[in-house]
Structure formats: structure tokens, C-alpha cells
């Protein structure tokens, strides 16, 4: 909702709507409770293993699930599928330079392709990589390269109810302590994610990015940004940080990136496409090495595993993603659901983040122990209730400590209701709010789960469970 002045000088509450209209629709399937029970059992109580045909409203992720615009679809027809030197690569390079400000571009099939390459280039066995909260694929690539991830996010990020508007911020004291302990030579780079997915889509302030840069510069440590949701971070800086209200999103984004040496990017989020990513970097030597590796793992350095048409869609997506009205509607939708759930006292991470509502499963299901996988159980229950698919972001996602083999026990045990961009309407949001409230009313009946199959890597994707009876 927007507040503007009425003609008589009295403030009037004015509604605002999505800055697009719908040209094509995809029909949804409504299932019965019996069908959902069978589907969930077959999926091992893991929402990742459900067939999407059995899902009504799909809030598993905002990754690759966005609706492209007519301009992006038109761009597909301009795909230049030459093996080398596709014009769409150069279009993408132009927009990466213009909006993010980095010098060199290496396209990759998606974000983890870029994470793989930068980790292999910069990390040596025995190194430490500080970051503002782990992200599953990012940490795994750091570990596979021989490094150890060290969490340097501010303490507030681990508290679901702390109202700090920039809960993604790096705690500089934690970085200093790490430098004092292991020495700057053992820290190839600091990884700063904007926004922080696992903390609830929480942003990082410009002030913090500036300070992180200054500290790292002093010690000769690179800063690599995870720019996957940097546009959403820029929006939060504009509306929450003093001094930025009159700046445009592109101006804010350029300043954010200027405090880093490069970025990894999953274009499947901010950039409004279904596939694509890139690594962008300012140092020629790192770029040269990245060009060497990309041809081994992804494809030639001018396509990196993407079709020319995919690069064109992503390039056009950059322009649309940097539009203020788009970001306001996108984040406004998440806020709308937050307002609805708050009225019924449903516990979720505050402040509301950029891409999702994160239900607080510890508060929702206080009768369950963390080893009974409360967030996994809650995601399963929501699916049973209404066919809405969400994602566990708690102990299952956190995985195991590679030294001790024990589970990590994250302070945050969350269920993520993630909003694909430009896909669902306000009416879908109302159904979601009603469904979550219904599950909350019946929360005492929810039992935990046992894990009966655990894959070696990124277990949350394929693990299987059964209900505790
Ligand atoms: N994020 C998400 O649903 C995709 C699947 S979960 C592993 O949130 C960040 C901040 C991400 C991210 C993916 C990646 C990897 C890197 N950084 O999925 O490989 O949120 O394109 O990107 C998911 P790709």
C-alpha cells in the first residue's frame, strides 16, 4: 500500500498494482488430500522430490521460476547460436559492465558454475573463506577446493526476531579476529552475499559494504560479492538506509559493486530468467584463469554453457530487474503476505526479506527437537494442507560438519515460502495466508520426521524421510 496526498490535503491510502499485465497463462492443477498424501509419501516427505504436476502453488524457490517479459521472449528470437563470439554475449557483457561495473565477464550455466570456477582459482587447501552466513552451494565449492568457510555475519542475523534493518551485515570484529588467528595470507577472499538468503533474504547496508572493503583492502584480501539478489539489496538500501532515498537502483547497485573485486551471479533470481549465471571480475589474471577453466567445465568463454538466446534473455533481464517499480511490486508481494500472517501471530523472520517469508519452525513447532527436523515436517504439512510447496532451510539444509561428521545445528530452523517473480497474483497470496494460518491452528498435531536416506552432498535436495509415529 502506498500513502499519497488526497485532493483535500488529507492523506488517502492508495493501492498499487503489479507493473505488468498478463499475456499468457499456465493452468494449475488442484489436487485432493488423498492425492497429496500419496504424492508426499512417494516423495519421501521431501518437497524437492515432489512432481511439480502435483503442486498447486509452487513456492519452493525463486530460482529459475520467474516469468519472462515479452521483451525477453522477443530476445530469444534474436539468439545468435554461433559457437564462438555470439552477439548476445557482447550484449550481456555491455549490460554487466553498465549495471554492475565489473570489467570482465565469464558466463556460466548458473550460479554454482561461477562459484566452482572462482573457488578453484582463488582457494588453496588450508585456506579460510569468511562469509556473511553460509549458502549451501557456495560453501560446498569452497570446501571442495580445500577451504573452510567461516561465518562472519552479525549476531542479529541468527535471531529471527531482531528488527535490525540490515541483518545481512558483516561483523567486522569477526573478520578481524579471523585475520588475527590465521593471517591474511590464508584468506583468499571475503565472500559477501547481497541479500543473505539463509538469514531470511536480509540486506547488507552500503555503509557495511564500504567498511568491509576498507578492512579487506588494508590486509590485501579480495572481496567477492554473491550478487544473486543484489538488485533486491539495492532496493532495501534505497528505502531503509539514510542518504539513498533519492538515488536510483542502478546508481546504488554500481556503488555496492564498487566495493568488491568481482561477483558470482545466479541469473535465475534477480535477472528474471529460467537459466543462466556468470562470474564477473576486475582483475585480468583472475579473468584469464577463469577463461581457462570455463572451457573445461561449462563451455567456450563466450557462452559458458548457455545458448545465445539465454544470454540475451538474461541481458534484457538486467535492465528490467533494475526497475524500481518492478522491485517495489516484487518485494511488496512478500510484505503483503507478511502482513497477513502477522495478523494471526504466525511466527516468521522479521524484518520481511526480499525474496521470501521464512516461517520460524522452532516457534511454530516448539514441541519438536531439531533432530526431528521441524522445518522439514512443517513444509510437508503445508503441502498436505493445500498443495503449496515450500522449502526447508534448517538443519537438513545445513548439512554436516566435514571434520566431526555431526549435523550442523543452525540457530534458524526455517521454512521458506519463496516468491517467483511476476508469477503469482494477490489472490494466490491470500490462499497462501489462509493455508499457513490453518496449519498454524493445527500445529500441535504435527509430528516430526526421521531421515531414512541421506545423500553425501547437499542432502536437502534428495534426502528421504518418514513420519515419526
Ligand atoms: N539458490 C535457492 O532456491 C537455488 C537452489 S538451493 C541450492 O535459493 C545464492 C545466494 C543462491 C543460490 C541458489 C546460488 C546458486 C548462489 N547464491 O542455483 O546454481 O540463493 O544458480 O545458484 C537457490 P544456482
Quick synopsis:
The chain is 39% helix and 14% strand.
Structure overview:
The protein is 39% helix and 14% strand. It is of the alpha/beta class. The chain folds into 2 domains: 16-62 and 324-467, Aspartate Aminotransferase, domain 1 (Alpha-Beta Complex); 70-321, Type I PLP-dependent aspartate aminotransferase-like (Major domain) (Aspartate Aminotransferase, domain 2, 3-Layer(aba) Sandwich). Helix 14 crosses helix 16. It is globular, with a radius of gyration of 22 Å. Ligand PM9 binds next to helix 4 and helix 5.
Give the number of domains.
Answer: 2
- The count of DSSP E runs of length 2 or more, i.e. the number of strands, is 16
Alpha plus pi helix count: 16
Strand order of the largest sheet: 4-10-9-8-7
The CATH class name of the largest domain reads Alpha Beta
CATH topology of the largest domain: Aspartate Aminotransferase, domain 2
Which regions have little confidence, pLDDT < 50, spanning 5+ residues? 1-6
Under CATH, the homologous superfamily of the largest domain reads Type I PLP-dependent aspartate aminotransferase-like (Major domain)
| Portion in beta strands | 5-15%
Q: Roughly what is the average pLDDT, rounded to an integer?
A: 96
Percent in helix: 25-40%
Amino acid at each position: 500500500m502506498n500513502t499519497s496526498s488526497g485532493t483535500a490535503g488529507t492523506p488517502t491510502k492508495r493501492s498499487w498494482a503489479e507493473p505488468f499485465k498478463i499475456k499468457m497463462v499456465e493452468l494449475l492443477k488442484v489436487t485432493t488430500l488423498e492425492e497429496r498424501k500419496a504424492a508426499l509419501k512417494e516423495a519421501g516427505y521431501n518437497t524437492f522430490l515432489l512432481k511439480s504436476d502435483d503442486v498447486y502453488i509452487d513456492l519452493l524457490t525463486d530460482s529459475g521460476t520467474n516469468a519472462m517479459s515479452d521483451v525477453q521472449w522477443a530476445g530469444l528470437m534474436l539468439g545468435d547460436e554461433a559457437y564462438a563470439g555470439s552477439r548476445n554475449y557482447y550484449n550481456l557483457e555491455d549490460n554487466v559492465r553498465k549495471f554492475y561495473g565489473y570489467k570482465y565477464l565469464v558466463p556460466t550455466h548458473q550460479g554454482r558454475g561461477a562459484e566452482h570456477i572462482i573457488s578453484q582459482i582463488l582457494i588453496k587447501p588450508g585456506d579460510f573463506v569468511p562469509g556473511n552466513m553460509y549458502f549451501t552451494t557456495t560453501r560446498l565449492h569452497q570446501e571442495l577446493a580445500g577451504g573452510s568457510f567461516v561465518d562472519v555475519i552479525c549476531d542479529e542475523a541468527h535471531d529471527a526476531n531482531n528488527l535490525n534493518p540490515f541483518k545481512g551485515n558483516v561483523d567486522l570484529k569477526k573478520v578481524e579476529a579471523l585475520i588475527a588467528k590465521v593471517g591474511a595470507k590464508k584468506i583468499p577472499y571475503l565472500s559477501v552475499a547481497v541479500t543473505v538468503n539463509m538469514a531470511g533474504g536480509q540486506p547488507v547496508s552500503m555503509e557495511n559494504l564500504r567498511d568491509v572493503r576498507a578492512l579487506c583492502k588494508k590486509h590485501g584480501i579480495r572481496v567477492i560479492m554473491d550478487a544473486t539478489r543484489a538488485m533486491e539489496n539495492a532496493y532495501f538500501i534505497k528505502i531503509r538506509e539514510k542518504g539513498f532515498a533519492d538515488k536510483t537502483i542502478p546508481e546504488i547497485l554500481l556503488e555496492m559493486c564498487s566495493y568488491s573485486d568481482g561477483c558470482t551471479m545466479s541469473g535465475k533470481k534477480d535477472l528474471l530468467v529460467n537459466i543462466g549465471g556468470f562470474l564477473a571480475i576486475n582483475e585480468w589474471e583472475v579473468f584469464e584463469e577463469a577463461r581457462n577453466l570455463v572451457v573445461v567445465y561449462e563451455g567456450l568463454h563466450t557462452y559458458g554453457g548457455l545458448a545465445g538466446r539465454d544470454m540475451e534473455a538474461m541481458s534484457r533481464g538486467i535492465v528490467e530487474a533494475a526497475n524500481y517499480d518492478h522491485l517495489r511490486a516484487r518485494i511488496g508481494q512478500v510484505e503483503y503476505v507478511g502482513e497477513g500472517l502477522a495478523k494471526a501471530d504466525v511466527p516468521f523472520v522479521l524484518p520481511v526479506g526480499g525474496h521470501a517469508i521464512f516461517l520460524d519452525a522452532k516457534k511454530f513447532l516448539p514441541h519438536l527437537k531439531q533432530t526431528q527436523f521441524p522445518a522439514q515436517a512443517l513444509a510437508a504439512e503445508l503441502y498436505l494442507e493445500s498443495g503449496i510447496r515450500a522449502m526447508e532451510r534448517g538443519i537438513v539444509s545445513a548439512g554436516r560438519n566435514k571434520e566431526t561428521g555431526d549435523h550442523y545445528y543452525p540457530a534458524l530452523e526455517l521454512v521458506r515460502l519463496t516468491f517467483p517473480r511476476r508469477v503469482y497474483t494477490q489472490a494466490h497470496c491470500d490462499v497462501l495466508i489462509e493455508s499457513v494460518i490453518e496449519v498454524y491452528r493445527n500445529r500441535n498435531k504435527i509430528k516430526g520426521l526421521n531421515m531414512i536416506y541421506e545423500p553425501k552432498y547437499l542432502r536437502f535436495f534428495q534426502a528421504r524421510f518418514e513420519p515419526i509415529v
